[in-house]
Structures are given as C-alpha cells and as structure tokens.
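Duplicate of #3305? Posting structure anyway:
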C-alpha cells in the first residue's frame, strides 16, 4: 500500500486540567513549531483543550462554553496547516448531551468533528457519567500538500477493540488512521499498547498515527510514548515516555526515530518522579517535607522527591524515639547528606513521655494494645504537619501498598500527608526501586546499603520487626497481589501459593477491615491496574466472610 507523502508531527503535551489559557499557549507554540518545520498534519491528544480527565468540570456549561471559545481561537492559527485536536462539546442539536470530540481543522476551518464512540467505564474511567457516544464515521476527505486524502480519526478506546469505527474506516480504504489518546500508565501497559497498535495497522494494512497525553494528573500518570506505525505494522517513530515531545516524520521517506525502551524498573521509577513533579508544579507548590526514619520507605520517598523537585526543595525531619536504633538515625542522616537535602533532628522522647503521663492513668491496658505505638506515630505526624504549614510545603506520606493493604499504618500518624509517592508499590517493589536508583547514580549509591539490608521495623517498641505482625513480605506481597489484582479467593490463593489457608484468611480479613483507613489516605501515583481509590472500590461496612 502506498504511504501518504505528507509531513506529519505528533505533539504529546503535558496538559493541566482546566487551565484553558495555559493549554492554549502550549498548543499554539506547537502549531508554530510545526509551521517552522514545514509540517502538513499536526496531531494532538485526547481532550487537549481542557486536559484529561476533566471530571465534573464537564457539568458546568461555562466550562464547555470556554472550551468552545478556545477551540475557535486555535482554529484562527491554522493557516497552511491541518491539525487534529481533542476537546469536549455539547451536542449541537441536544445541548444537554456532551461529547468527547476530535476536530480536524484546516486553514482556519473546522472541517470535521468526530465524537468518541467507545466510552470506557471501568477502573479509573467514568466516561459514561459525562459523555454520549458518537455515531460519525470519523472519515475526513481533505487535500493536504496537494494530495487528496481520506483520514480516519478516532479517540483512544475506539482503537482498542476490533470494532467500528476503525474497522469501518479501514474497509473504506482510508489513507491514514489517526488516534488521539489519553491512555493512563500502568506497569506493563506501554509494551502491550504498542503491540496492540501494531496489530491494528498490520491487519488494516493502513499506516497509523497514535498521539498520547503525557504527564501527571492527580493520581493518574500519562506516559506519552506516541508512535507512528506503517502499513506493515512496523514502528516508524516512537516518542519518549514521560516527557513532552514534538516528533515529525513522513511515511513516504521513513527515517527511524525510535526511543530505546526503558527497563521495567526505570520505567516505573520515571513514572513516580513524573507524577510527583507534576502534582507539585500543577498545584503551585515547590517544597516537600517528610519524616526520615532510616527505613526503606522513607528513603525511596525522599529520593523520588529530590529527583522530582530538586534536593534543595526537600526537608527531611528525623524524629527518633527511645526505641529508635542508632543505625536508623545514622542511615537517615547519611541519606539526607548524600542527597544534599535539608535535614532537621527533632527527638520525640520528651513529648512521648508527656503523652504517657497524661494517658496511662486513664487506661489500665495502655501498653497492651497499640495505643502507645500509635501515639508515637501521631506525635511525628503533628510535627511534620507543623513543618508543612510553616513552610507551605506538601507533607509526603511514606506508606507503601503492602502496609496500607493490611492496615499496618496509623491514621493521623504516618498516614498524614498531602501526597504519597509510593502508595501503589508493594514492599518488594520498594526494595527493587531502591536498588535501581542506587545503580544509576554516577556519584555512587545514594541510599545506604544498611537501609536496604536491615529487617524492616516501625521501631515503636523494643526489638520490633514487621514480621512480628505480618508474614514475610515475599509471601505477603504474593497474597495481596492475588487478592487485590487478580480477585482470587482465600482457597484459590492458598492452593496457588501452597500456603496455609488460615494465614491467607487472616491476611484477607486484615485487608477488608482496614478499608476505612485507605479511604482517608493521601493521593499518590497510580502505577497498577488496581490501585486503591478509583480502581478498587469496596464498602467500609462489609459483612462478607472469607
């Protein structure tokens, strides 16, 4: 099949939801860059005008009106160029209905508007709450660089399945398929998405341009990784992951421009840094504070924050108690010094004793339960929030998914915070990313080896280890992944892992009865297809027995 001989560019922008003026500037800059490089067709991403997902902003008519005004203003800058761009709109004849739409604009004129057909309504997606499916075939007949071309336009989900409208477009013999997307990142998804797109282009024998959103939006991460694939299913160009990019190419004169795929750990680490950086920048914050315990979780959180914001913008607060070991204090200080971040030493022994004097007479069993342990965590949470308020800094929560799953966290203590960079990482992933980060630093390891090798402990009572209360993480993480990600029941998990059924049942009950904690937790990067929050939605009041 003949490839279209036009200069094409993909602009994967880091868009901020609702910032119509800022987004417009980014779009116009990309259009000007395209003109400077003699681009004929410029492809943007899904809902470029307003960002994705706009959620309940779509219920405000003023928001939709402003989006319409913005798209018309952008059209005024498209002389001698054709663009495909995403925006939300009211249905022209039934204004109470809304569409997730793509406009093909040429020489100041909106030549075609296509409304997304397939509205995802699973995991983080909730598009049926807002949008009505479209019925336009998405085929635009346009003359570009003297060539009469039929271009098939679709939006994100429309291309994930062997169904209309893409099948219909291919059957009509379009010259080019264009898909604009806002496909969120999850581990393993980048490679599976690219393979899916290659299958589509090859099976339809039609070149394909896929432009995906990039950047963090609350808990969601968009990886970009836009690509162009020829009619044989071969990748012509592959944009970088987790970076805004402008990529120009021509199917008729292919010059391979492929970013080398990252390793699994590198990809995951970059995703966490991207989401953390964008959460701060898009919300107007520059400073972060966190508690540095000398443990593995706070170490990884600190390094992610330093890479995202610059170490000079991160403050680590060391708050040893009478149970803290000397090596934990030393490990925390070495980490802070190596990173070049600010550190503050604030022992909590005196405050802990004051709470003990006030509360112990009230409870006969003060030391038998978790009361005294949780008091220590809440003293630290209070001190950290004081730093957060005083420095206009976001407090970073250092909890991981393994601990949060089973409730091995303290409300208003170590759960305090405005953002939780590692909340969707199992404990073993935390270890793996620490090893990865140490391996890539040209100056040598930044996380002390002792932090990685010592047994994990909350250090809230003498000689405490996590394994006193929990299975070893090598076992716990497997149980949690089977239950949370794969939705297996207790007997299935026990059989698959060759573990005692009573142990599995105990863990699952711990997960279920701590739902109330997780629903009060800070937001953090979503890096799996089943993160707590919008993916996994369980009742707090739950009488189901495993």
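Output from current build:
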């Amino acid at each position: 099949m003949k490839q279209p001989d036009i200069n094409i560019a993909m602009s994967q922008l880091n868009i901020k939801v609702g910032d119509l003026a800022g987004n417009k500037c980014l779009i116009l800059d990309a259009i000007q860059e395209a003109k400077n490089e003699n681009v004929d067709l410029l492809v943007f991403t899904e809902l470029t005008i307003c960002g994705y997902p706009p959620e309940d902003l779509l219920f405000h008519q003023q928001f939709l009106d402003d989006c319409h005004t913005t798209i018309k203003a952008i059209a005024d800058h498209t002389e001698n160029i054709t663009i495909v761009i995403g925006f939300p709109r009211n249905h022209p004849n039934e204004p109470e209905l809304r569409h997730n739409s793509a406009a093909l604009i040429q020489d100041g004129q909106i030549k075609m508007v296509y409304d997304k057909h397939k509205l995802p309504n699973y995991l983080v997606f909730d598009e049926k709450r807002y949008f009505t499916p479209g019925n336009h075939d998405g085929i635009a007949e346009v003359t570009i660089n003297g060539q009469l071309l039929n271009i098939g336009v679709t939006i994100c989900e429309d291309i994930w399945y062997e169904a209309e409208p893409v099948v219909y477009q291919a059957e009509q013999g379009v010259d080019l398929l264009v898909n604009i997307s806002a496909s969120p990142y999850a581990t393993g998804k980048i490679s599976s998405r690219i393979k899916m797109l290659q299958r589509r282009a090859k099976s339809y024998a039609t070149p394909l341009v896929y432009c995906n959103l990039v950047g963090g939006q609350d808990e969601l991460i968009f990886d970009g990784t836009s690509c162009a694939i020829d009619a044989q299913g071969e990748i012509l160009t592959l944009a970088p992951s987790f970076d805004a990019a402008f990529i120009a190419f021509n199917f008729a004169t292919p010059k391979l421009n492929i970013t080398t795929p990252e390793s699994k750990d590198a990809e995951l680490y970059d995703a966490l840094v991207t989401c953390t950086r964008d959460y701060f920048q898009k919300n107007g914050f520059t400073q972060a504070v966190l508690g540095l315990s000398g443990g593995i979780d706070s170490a990884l959180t600190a390094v992610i924050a330093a890479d995202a914001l610059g170490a000079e913008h991160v403050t680590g607060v060391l708050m040893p108690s009478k149970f803290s070991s000397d090596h934990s204090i030393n490990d925390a200080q070495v980490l802070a010094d190596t990173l070049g971040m600010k550190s503050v030493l604030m022992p909590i022994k005196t405050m802990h004793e004051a709470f003990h004097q006030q509360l112990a007479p009230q409870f006969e069993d003060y030391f038998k339960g978790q009361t005294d342990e949780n008091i220590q965590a809440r003293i630290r949470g209070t001190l950290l929030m004081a730093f957060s308020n005083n420095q206009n800094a976001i407090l970073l929560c250092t909890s991981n998914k393994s601990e949060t799953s089973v409730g091995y966290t303290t409300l208003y203590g170590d759960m305090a915070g405005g953002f939780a960079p590692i909340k969707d990482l199992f404990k073993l992933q935390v270890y793996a990313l620490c090893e990865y980060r140490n391996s890539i630093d040209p100056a040598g390891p930044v996380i002390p080896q002792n932090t990685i090798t010592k047994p994990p402990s909350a250090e809230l009572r003498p000689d405490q280890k996590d394994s006193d209360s929990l299975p070893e993480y090598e076992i716990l993480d497997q149980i949690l992944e089977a239950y949370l990600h794969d939705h297996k029941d207790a007997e299935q998990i026990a059989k698959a892992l060759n573990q005692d059924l009573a142990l599995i049942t105990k863990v699952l009950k711990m997960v279920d009865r701590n739902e109330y904690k997780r629903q009060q937790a800070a937001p953090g990067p979503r890096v799996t297809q089943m993160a707590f929050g919008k993916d996994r939605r369980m009742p707090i009041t739950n009488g189901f027995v495993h």
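Confirmed duplicate; merging threads. Residues 275-470+514-518 form a domain with the Rossmann fold fold (CATH 3.40.50.620). Residues 206 and 231 are 4 Å apart (CA to CA).
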